[in-house]
Specification:
The protein is an alpha+beta fold. Helix content is 31%, strand content 30%. The protein is built from eleven helices and 21 strands. Helix 1 packs antiparallel against helix 2, helix 8 packs antiparallel against helix 9 and helix 9 runs antiparallel to helix 10.
Length: 452
Amino acid sequence: MANFSKSNVPRFSVDVYQNEYLPEGGREVNAIVTVTSTGGGTTGGVPLAGASSTPSALPGNGPNAAVVIMVDCSGSMDYPPTKMRNARDATAAAVDTLRDGVAFAIVGGTHVAKEVFPGKGRLAIADSGTRAQAKEALRRLSAGGGTAIGTWLRLADRLLATADVPIRHGILLTDGRNEHEAPEDLKAALDSCAGRFTCDARGVGTDWEVKEVTAIASALLGTADIVADPAGLAADFTSMMENAMGKEIADVALRLWTPVGVEIAFVKQVAPTVEELTGRRTEAGPRAGDYPTGSWGDESRDYHLCVRVPEAGIGQEMLAARVSLILPAPGGGAPEVLSQGLVRAVWTDDMAASTSINPQVAHYTGQAELAQVIQQGLDARKSGDFDGATAKLGRAVQLAASSGNADTAKLLSKVVDVVDAATGTVRLKAKVADADEMTLETRSTKTVRVKK
């Protein structure tokens, strides 16, 4: 493990957990890489630049974070009328959570996107005055029109691009399906915004499409969740904004360098959620590629790397991969290496050593399978394949129980009657509340850390 740090950024560390021993002819090397960032703002570390009690305390420095809140104002937000009121209150709570000096804007989303505050293509700088003005503007929000989320994201991107800040973040709330633009239009908007800002997405009520909301969060390296009861929006928005305010460093990349002859099978985040990163690689020089991780505060995440090495004889060893945390340099100069870890391969005739599965690798392989079988089980249930749904959701119950994922086990119990968790024996419930099924689907990728 290596640590590198500058005084104005969090400190990063990389720990590699693996069984480096392979049998003769063995080629597949698995490793769990734990990345930990300390000294950020989430738990009381280095404060955000620009987060002083008075923005003028940093003359010429300006904010170092910008946030755009996108609020669904489509006609369905009036059914029931409390939904729109709760959305206004939640957005006001998020505005109150903004640190002084942070740039922000509010967008109202229907089949078009409109600037609610401050307007004229600008961002406001958070202080007591602009917060009050923003909350006054929110009182004028009303529901009416359709839903075209791609237009909301593109407007947020344009607004965020006006701020010369490292942390750019969006919060998006919707209550319905994206019915007023083609799926390819939303995908094009996500492709355009990816890497430019992160975004947390929330669905309120039960009339929205889970796969749309989770796709937004996945593409923009944010979180997705359901708020089934609109009364819970204010607490959720406050929590989201507090988390966003804790971010200290953006655009950190996981750089994977491999020697000649080594192939990358996959790269995925496995904690706190499962997120496939393999296809997001950008080339970074000979035999090196970067995988995006988004922005960081005080937190720890786990990544699962799988590489295939050339065959080698007993007693030989090699460096299978070098993992680095990279921060791009302003102006395109040499990037800063924040931390590094090494993945090794050693060939042995000791069967006990070469067949042992590292506990972290085994745990997260199970957590990734858990996320997959929940999705497959729910899809099967929706399509009327009840035998397939029972088998998949039974396997999910078994995996959740064996890994200690109590939260997911509890959500599964709302969809199936558990006969025997250890064997995965379940019965599908005859009637399942929409909110329970959608909560399970939305949170299916959430994992638990490996037991130490």
